[in-house]
Amino acid sequence: MTIRTAALTGARNYYEDFAVGDVYEHARGKTVTEFDNVIITNLVMNTAQAHFNEHFAASMPYKRRIVFGGVTAALVIGLAMQDTGENALREVGLDKVRLSSPVFHGDTLYAFSEVLGKSAPAVDRETLIEAGEVRFRHWGVNQDGKTVFEAERRALIKMRPAGAGA
Amino acid sequence: MNDELRKRAKKLGKGNFYDDFHVGQVFEHHWGRTINEGDNSLFSAATMSYNPMYFNAEVARAHGHPGTVVNPMLVFLTVFGLSVEDLSEAGGLFLGVENLTFHRSVYPTDTLYARSTVLEVRESTSRPDSGIVSWHTEGFDQQGRLVIDFRRTNLIPRRRAAK
Questions:
Q1: Is B54 a member of any domain?
Q2: Predicted local distance difference test score (pLDDT) of residue B106
Q3: Partner of B13 at 20 to 30 A CA spacing, among A92, B70, B127, B161?
């Protein structure tokens, strides 16, 4: 079997497929487990124990462990990734990141995205692949419909290669 | 452990408070962190970050990389994590991040280091027990090359407000 890398990713999320003003609801949600929050918080060396010490957290205003905002950000952007970054050459940056409501173990997050803008495509100097920057706004919404996360994200997304279908 | 010993134990607190920050102050954060393949796979899988560049070495090589690329969100969270003891372990809400740029790709076996500079220190009108601090945090690889930078803002308790 010959592996064609273009066949490994979706055919409808190339640079050409994003229209400014489009809004997407991403298919999957994820319940934030204790495992997700604690393992990622500890993996990235975040030493703030309100995220991993339940006994200590009981004395804090929320009375229980709160999910690290970085975990919320990574999960929401993760939930949006297949649709908005599966064919990205690279991530460019984030801006206006807001954690508007706390997230707790057992909460379920859903992701929504809006296409805010696109820059003209060009041949990427590092990879010699044609790509253009797309700017998104992402939202993370919990099971009660409350927005818990909002951010703008820029990603350099490949143009559809010949033969990738549409 | 008996009560006598317990009473003698000196609590070794961690972190800085609002009163400890002044504009221009620089923190070279502790430890550094070598990112390995397992970190990257676990992180990308747990966060459902479905760009195969982060978990399929063949796809990454087809795009000019030596192997899998470290998920940029893992780079962000690790540089953030390394900064927490100095900047925000004392508690207080994480208010936001602005102007985050991923400057270059990071690969497994690269080591990340973090440094922050205090940009702004201001009173909170709604929370007199705390203040608002903003930092410019930079992440570097083992060759001292800038891989990420961003501005972070937190609510930080004042020293006297802390227990």
A1: no
A2: 98
A3: B127
